[in-house]
Amino acid sequence: MKYLLLLLLPFFAYSTDFSEEFGNLQRTYIMGNCDRFTYSEWQGFSDNVRQALYLNPNAMYENFSDYGIVGDGITDDTSALQAAFDNAGILVNDIDSSTFMISARLDFDQSFTHTIDWNNAVLTTNTNLVNMIRIDKRISNGGSTNMTNLIVDGNDKATYGFFLFTRVNFSNVDIMNLLQVSGGSSPAGIRMDLYDDDDVHGDWVFDGCDISNLKGLIDNDIGGAQGAANGFLMYWRENPVSATNIMYKNAVIHDCFGEDAQTIAIFSPSLDISNTPSGIVFDNMEMYNWERRNLKLFASNIIFKNSLIKDTPANHVGLTGGQASAGMIAAGRGSGSTGGNNISFISCEFQSLQNGRDQRVIFIDAYHFSLENCSFTGGADLRFTRTIGDGSICNTKFEAGSSISSYTSGATNVDNGEITLDTDNIYQEGIESTIAGLTDYSTIEADIDCTEDVLSTFTYENNLNLIRLFQNPVNNEIRIISKHTFSSYQIFSLNGSIVKQGGIVTNQNYITIMITNLEKGIYFLQLNDNNEKRKASLKVMKN
Prior knowledge:
The chain is mainly β. It has 3 domains: 59-155, no CATH class; 180-462; 467-542, Immunoglobulins (Immunoglobulin-like). The longest helix is centred in the first third of the chain and has 14 residues, at 18-31. The chain starts with 17 loop residues before the first helix and ends with a strand.
């Protein structure tokens, strides 16, 4: 009998397809608003501009040319662009084939929402800038900043493409050619510092935002000021009280070099966000050509879906040679993070190379992790080190040359945790050979259900709904907050037997289930809707 080996769900979501609804609305809208826009004018707007105009019936858009912006790649457009951003909420670039030259940082700190269609423009500089665009509306309570169709080219002069503090929605915004200058900050295509603030909470979206060609310097000091080039760099600075969710999708991040460089780096210094309704999802991504690591994931609540994570050729011309590599992926606790929980890879490929830089996917001090429907190819290896909590490897393929092992003296499981290997995993060299080096941790082999409708840590789409355990482990009571209605529950033991079931009583949006008579141990709670179709599953530990 299959049982559900699942991880703690900080939250989950049900998605709504807004595009079809909005398409119907905008057809009605344009028919009744011909006094504002011609049909051809409306059709020429990007989707984000149309949505902004629809949601603000009294709003009008303004053109870049209204502010004297030139866009010839020679004229300094800094002041004119800043004036436009200071005064207009909805902007459309009406200058064809435009390149905007700037000599100073552009700031979005105004007290209103921005929606900007750049119309496939290039923003570049000939000046050594720390960052090209800074978005921080925390003081002004200005809300979100929405941009589409822009190339930010640092021209090997700028350090950051974007430095973000408040909520954005970017579509087809690409960043490239960032360079660290001597004594300066390490480059990042997008850097995010997230605090607990109303203009931070909510949904962040990066859709089709490619990042490429970053280079840091060498000082032969890992953790020093030089060399830490990051394509996408994010810091949790405070635990968010309200849901703060980031979706990054349909993009390629590559060629990030420097002695401590990676394509994606996520940190939560001195914080653990695992029990918050917040996190980040990467979907349909490709990451390659890096120096120190491909992914550095030292925070909680991270999902990668449908993504290709690739090794770097050992002889790549971009390598600085400053330091040795530290794994294709390093995920868990590190760099001062106190939380490395709920990290999942779903339908991902980890691809090593015959003459690659580093084939290791490393979980380090990681709790409640999962690999679902993944593949290790070209000799990519899965490694565990230091303390490891519960985790599962489900319906995953290990091709010839790939292995699962542990290293570091003193490695151990924590919280009675186990690494569970699905009986549906494929080991081309046989399970005994593949896991021969996995000697430091407790493992079990079981038939795990990791089908598409099972949420292994958390999932995110627009229009967030939440399900969350108040605490885990629990004593005599499981208490859950949920915006979705459930009618019944089942609690499974580790061997798949139902040990308790019943109807759900909701009191003031809480779901309460008493488990006084259950023995100490690990259980799996399944919540059902009125049709007895599984909607959510959680792992629960009773003290």
